[in-house]
């Protein structure tokens, strides 16, 4: 069942399931919702970008997009979404910032079921119980470190956006500091204040955000590792497993 989010913004229910099927490389232009959205790709990979950063949801992951957040979505491969629009009070702990969270087998089945439930379901029946459990499972889902926040500092933001176009795992603090005419200490303080991460953490997340869609498209691990500046697939795989807990092959289509 394909439902357009805008058609359900004002349905008098706290949680509404929506779903859709999209061709490979399809893009949704920047838009926003009155409600929060939990975006999950039952098939394929979704890449979400906002003015504040970029998030990638590979298999068994979902993206929380807070109410009112402008966002664009790019589909990697053919994508089937099973998502929900959520009134803020229904998932109070997820907050005002985008994040990637783990989708358990139970949460996945609830998301699939929700897309088939009528928008104006009986609030005293089984459908309402499914939706309440769905909201609870979303609210308690573990956060996964797959964020690439963008700074507000104009020159640093420009550097970050350019890096995402061609990420290199070998980039150093001194190279970036010199390019921005800063000393090392000033740069590291500015970078953490603007992004909430160290430079090494952000660089790693940026490389992952580029690698995951390529893995989902079936590209070889070795080619991806070398393109990102790793000296071979072993060092890339070590980083990948350390951050995500599984080898890169787990995410290949």
Automatic annotation (TrEMBL):
Listed Gene3D superfamilies: Homeodomain-like (1.10.10.60), Jelly Rolls (2.60.120.10)
Keyword list, A-Z: Activator, DNA-binding, Repressor, Transcription, Transcription regulation
Q: Which PROSITE patterns match?
A: HTH_ARAC_FAMILY_2
Q: Which SMART domains match?
A: HTH_ARAC (SM00342)
- What domain of life does the native source organism fall in? Bacteria
Would the keyword Ribosomal protein be found if you checked this record's keyword annotation? no
InterPro entries (UniProt xref) = AraC-bd, Homeodomain-like_sf, HTH_AraC, RmlC-like_jellyroll, RmlC_Cupin_sf, Tscrpt_reg_AraC-type_HTH
- GO molecular function, one example? DNA-binding transcription factor activity
Specify whether DNA-binding is a keyword of the entry: yes
Name of a matching Pfam family: AraC_binding
HTH araC/xylS-type domain residues are 164-253
Instruction: Write down what this protein is called.
Output: Helix-turn-helix transcriptional regulator
The species is Sphingomonas lycopersici
